[in-house]
UniProtKB/TrEMBL annotation:
Organism: Thauera humireducens
Gene3D superfamilies recorded: 6.10.250.1580
Name of the protein described by the UniProt record: ATP synthase subunit b
Keyword Cell inner membrane assigned: no
High-level lineage: Bacteria, Pseudomonadati, Pseudomonadota, Betaproteobacteria, Rhodocyclales
PANTHER family: ATP SYNTHASE SUBUNIT B, ATP SYNTHASE SUBUNIT B', CHLOROPLASTIC
Amino acid sequence: MNLNATLIAQLVVFFILAWFTMKFVWPPIVKALDERAKKIADGLAAADKAKADLALAEKKVVEELRKARESAGDVRSSAEKQASQLIDEARAEASRIIAAAREAAEAEAGVAAQRAKEALRDQVANLAVAGAEKILRREINAQVHGELLANLKQELQ
């Protein structure tokens, strides 16, 4: 066989194969590669967006934690103020109760002292009457002496 004819025939077959490949085989391969590249690009964009969303979410979490800590501090300080106010009110109420009890005890002690004085006066009067009775038994005018003792009893009261 002739080398030139073989070479020309191989060139013709090569160009027909190249044309057939470029016309029918190459476009679906290019299309598949383009779709794959687009999917990869979309995936990378989604990953970048997810990273940005994650960073934003982390910032929001940090901010919310800070707000929660501040709120907890406010609640704690409010509770401490309320507790100290309740303690002060309880102390004031206890002081009022103690003062009222002290006044009642002093009044009761005064009443008891008055009763004791009256009882003592009655006993002194009874002793005076008993003594006067003894004196009167010896004397004749009991009525005059009884009046004197009644006046004495009145003076003692």
